[in-house]
Write a structure and sequence with these properties.
Layout lengths: L5 E5 L3 H13 L3 E6 L3 H10 L3 E5 L4 H14 L5 E5 L4 H9 L2 E6 L4 H22 L10 E7 L1 E2 L3 H16 L3 E5 L7 H4 L20 H5 L3 E2 L5 E3 L13 H14 L2 E5 L6 H9 L2 E6 L3 H16 L7 E6 L12 H5 L3 E5 L4 H6 L5 H4 L4 H13 L9 H8 L1 H4 L4 H4 L1 H6 L27 E2 L7
Parallel strand pairs: 1-2, 1-3, 3-4, 4-5, 6-11, 6-12, 8-10, 8-11, 12-13, 13-14
Antiparallel strand pairs: 7-15, 9-10
Helix pairs in contact: 2-3, 6-15, 9-10
Bound molecules: adenosine-5'-triphosphate and magnesium ion.
The site of adenosine-5'-triphosphate has 23 residues, from helix 6 and helix 13.
């Protein structure tokens, strides 16, 4: 992609045009010129041969759409981005039909505009590569990175249980990669050997193929394929982010899901795990210190222009005392909570068995929460019902004891996605009395910022 992509602006309003020009220049784009609709726009497009056209779509909409269509005829390869005060879906659809690649609703913001331009340019570049056969058939496994701003907040617990729930409930293949560069403990939690590990894949790029990766994978009794971390943290020195990228790409070509567990500290490996993910489970506990660090994490992601739709907030109640905080997590983080996992002391108990709780105690409230989360990540909106539940749809009194919100209030309160209007801290206030098994989160914030 060009370092200073060439852009032209088409806007009928001179002052709006100047403002857009200012924003683009500040974001480092080379503004080649600005024009109004009609012939003026066509001439500018022909003369400047831009890489992106930014066009205002305002009333009379027929005229601005006609301009877009004509510009698209002159510059068929060049992406067009529209901005408009009109947010009516029928107009947006119409704009897309005439060739607009992205549609930004006013007020236009510098950051959003920059992201949009870079996004359409990347798409165009990829389209060109496809046409010239430069793009290899892509892996289509979903990469889920489990990340958090602290240690001890349940990332590995989530990774192992989510992996198990995905395999067992969706029937799809799952690989779990331990990227904890300090003390990777996926293998311990799953009671697996670590004779081979990801450090055996510190190979030249062309040697990291399916066979090599397969030879380092262990299949757990639950069906999850595990790529352990090396036992000694020093072995990570031989692994660089390029290795991780290749290993994950190979796994994503052979598995439906690739889960990446990360440490409670930040480094280049974690950075690559974030770049590569389809979904980022940004994990936090509901205490103020963890939330403060999560705000910093969100700010860091924003400064990288990390796509916000990838970020899913997961609140894990690793302690039964965290409910005391009574914070409105959604308001504090400025983002919806995707999932809330209840405190469940059986989690620590089953850790001794080397089995994720989902497999060892499927009826535990945390297990049910992980299973529902797996369905949500799998995009399964209505999970398959058992026979009694199905009968219960017809005979209500029969159905209730077997499942559904009435039968398992803790899960219903904690384990479903939070509706837009509700305070996610609600579940925290309902936690039971304090237990001796809780594990306090360790702060890693100082290691964290780049
Ligand atoms: N929902 C929960 N209820 C009760 N205990 C939990 C819950 N989630 C995690 N724990 C416990 O919290 C502790 C820390 O969990 P875990 O090791 O998964 O955290 P982590 O974020 O991976 O830590 P690290 O950053 O050190 O890798 C463990 O003892 C685990 O059993
Ligand atoms: Mg961990």
């Amino acid at each position: 992609m060009a370092r200073n992509p060439k852009v032209i602006i088409i806007d009928q309003d001179p002052s709006a045009r100047a403002e857009t020009q200012r924003m683009l220049a500040l974001s480092g784009f080379a503004v080649m010129g600005a024009a109004g609709y009609g012939m003026e726009a066509m001439t500018l497009a022909r003369e400047t041969e831009p890489e992106v056209v930014v066009v205002s779509l305002e009333e009379p909409i027929a005229r601005s759409l006609q301009t877009v269509e004509s510009v698209a005829d002159v510059l068929p390869q060049v992406p067009i981005i529209a901005y408009s005060s009109i947010s009516d879906p029928s107009y947006i659809r119409r704009a897309m039909q005439v060739g607009v690649k992205d549609y930004l609703v006013a007020p236009l913001e510098e950051e959003e505009l920059g992201r949009s331009i870079n996004g359409v340019l990347a798409q165009e570049e990829r389209r060109q590569q496809r046409l010239t056969g430069e793009v290899e058939a892509q892996s289509c496994g979903t990469v889920v990175t489990i990340f958090g701003a602290k240690g001890g907040i349940g990332k590995t617990t989530i990774a192992t249980n989510l992996a198990t729930a995905l395999v067992q409930k969706t029937g799809q293949s799952v690989a779990l990669v331990d990227l904890d560069t300090r003390f990777g403990d996926v293998a311990i939690l799953m009671d697996m050997p670590t004779d081979r590990s990801i450090s055996d894949l510190a190979l030249p790029d062309e040697e990291i193929d399916r066979d090599a990766v397969q030879s380092c994978l262990y299949t757990h009794g639950t069906g999850v394929a595990i790529l352990p971390a090396p036992i000694r943290p020093s072995e990570w020195h031989s692994i660089h982010p390029g290795h991780i990228e290749k290993v994950v790409a190979v796994l994503a070509a052979t598995h439906d899901y690739v889960l990446l567990d990360t440490p409670g500290a930040f480094n280049d490996i974690v950075s690559r795990a974030l770049e590569m993910c389809t979904i980022l489970l940004l994990t936090a506990t509901p205490d103020l210190a963890a939330l403060k660090d999560t705000i910093l994490a969100l700010e860091m992601l924003r400064s990288w222009s990390f796509p916000s739709e990838k970020v899913k907030i997961v609140i894990n109640h690793t302690s039964d005392a965290q409910g005391d905080a009574r914070v409105d997590i959604r308001r504090v983080l400025g983002k919806e909570v995707f999932w809330s996992i209840p405190y469940d002391r059986s989690i620590s108990q089953v850790t001794q068995l080397g089995m994720p709780i989902v497999a060892a105690k499927p009826k535990a409230k945390a297990s049910q929460s992980f299973v529902e989360m797996a369905y949500a990540i799998g995009g399964i909106r209505s999970r398959p019902k058992g026979m009694l539940e199905r009968l219960g749809d017809h005979i209500p009194l029969l159905g209730r004891p077997q499942g559904g919100p009435e039968a398992v209030p803790e899960v219903a309160a904690e384990g479903v996605p939070e509706p837009a209007t509700e305070a996610p801290a609600r579940s925290a206030t309902e936690a039971p009395a304090r237990s001796a098994t809780e594990a306090p989160a360790r702060s890693a914030t100082e290691e964290w910022t780049r």
